[in-house]
Recover the amino acids of this structure.
């Protein structure tokens, strides 16, 4: 994948658009933010945007397309949301029915695409601070868990906050809070440090999504709000049609990670 | 007004609800955030929320009520948006038609109230840092100007960014940027420092809204995005019915200013 680390977002999106690239996007266009995708019909869009507005830590909205427009004007004005993601998932009434490499045949005039921040954006800053990121070391997906923390409801959308977990050496926990606090638009500071049971996680070795990772002696599990939260909430509504990216197959934006840093 | 500085938000809202208090709210319930109000019908709510999401510096959304519900659950769950603001303005097709002390007779089941952050929240932190706030010293309204900076359009909503200006001693400008950067949900860092002409302001002594203030020798005009922006954008759409607070007559929330501080 290293061959794509130094390519520009536009170059990679062009390869994806021509179906010459259909792999997960981790590591591609290093330094540029990648975004989660959720597409809903206009009739659900206000409630979903409100849900995100009320729950900004798990649902940091980076961009919302104009109804019917496939162009994410703010974060990738040269992109087409219907073709520039390597793999999509089509859900009907909350059930996964198909994985496809473009959604030209599914796109309708009343569709609204939500691009949502992803904690990948703060993982390079963590590593640049000498803080290990275990799932990158172990070359697997981040461990994600449903918690007993409810999101604030909006219209028909509700559900628990989903978190991602990274084991952090005790001596680095304060710095990890500081570094990730700088990135509120990609989940920001952790929402919990330490005992998984306190947020309703029964078995840290059995994540609800992604892969379990090693927690070494002297490391503390640290939990960040996760972008799976809004997708899970949307799924519970069982919308007639909903389209998301396939896990790990993200939109590569034109915005540099550091542009989301505050202070 | 000092008699209300130490009262709780709930106590003051109760006086307002009984029409025993109909004055501007500046200085009341010291340390608690005050919010701007804009009420629109549901049919315009998605586009307006999207406009705010795309323009977070001038339009920092603190809370949005569920359609038809007058309760701002996030920032003042004990408040009723129809009675707890000292003075309201009723606009029909973009024209001011009436000022009233409650809106019980105007409220409809499809109305959505937007509570938007206000730069008053960061004025105490500025003063606590020894930085003068001129319009408080001169006991007048802050000076506000239309700029030549366009907001990002959303649906029918568009318009220029409106800014508030505070003259800051040259030696304090860096600190003023730092202090206000901590408060992104109430406009955050300035958007311009120095020459007014560079953002399209022709005469600094003739503000478009509010009052002109003295700029002393050695002071630099510093410009922050202003909550008048979304009201002005909404007015241009000439909605059938729109309700706002009367200038200076704000919703006093249960959230402390410092709770909006990051880091």
């Amino acid at each position: 994948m290293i061959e794509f680390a130094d390519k520009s977002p536009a170059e990679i999106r062009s390869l994806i658009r021509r179906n010459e690239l259909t792999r997960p996007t981790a590591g591609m266009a290093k330094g540029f933010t990648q975004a989660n995708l959720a597409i809903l019909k206009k009739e659900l869009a206000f409630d979903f945007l409100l849900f995100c507005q009320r729950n900004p830590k798990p649902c940091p909205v980076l961009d919302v397309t104009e109804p019917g427009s496939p162009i994410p004007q703010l974060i990738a004005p040269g992109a087409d949301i219907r073709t520039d993601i390597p793999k999509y998932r089509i859900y009907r009434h909350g059930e996964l029915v198909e994985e496809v490499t473009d959604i030209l045949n599914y796109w309708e005039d009343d569709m609204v695409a939500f691009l949502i921040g992803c904690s990948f954006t703060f993982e390079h800053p963590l590593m640049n601070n000498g803080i290990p990121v275990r799932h990158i070391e172990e070359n697997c997906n981040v461990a994600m868990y449903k918690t007993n923390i409810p999101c604030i409801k909006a219209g028909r959308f509700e559900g628990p906050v989903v978190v991602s977990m990274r084991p952090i050496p005790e001596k680095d926990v304060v710095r990890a809070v500081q570094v990730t606090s700088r990135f509120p638009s990609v989940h920001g500071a952790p929402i919990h440090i330490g005992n998984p049971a306190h947020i309703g996680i029964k078995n840290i070795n059995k994540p609800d999504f992604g892969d379990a990772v090693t927690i070494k002696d002297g490391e503390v599990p640290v939990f960040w709000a996760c972008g799976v939260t809004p997708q899970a909430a949307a799924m519970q509504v069982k919308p007639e049609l909903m389209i998301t990216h396939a896990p790990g197959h993200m939109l590569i934006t034109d915005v540099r990670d550091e542009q989301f840093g505050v202070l």
Observations:
- Chain B has six helices and eleven strands.
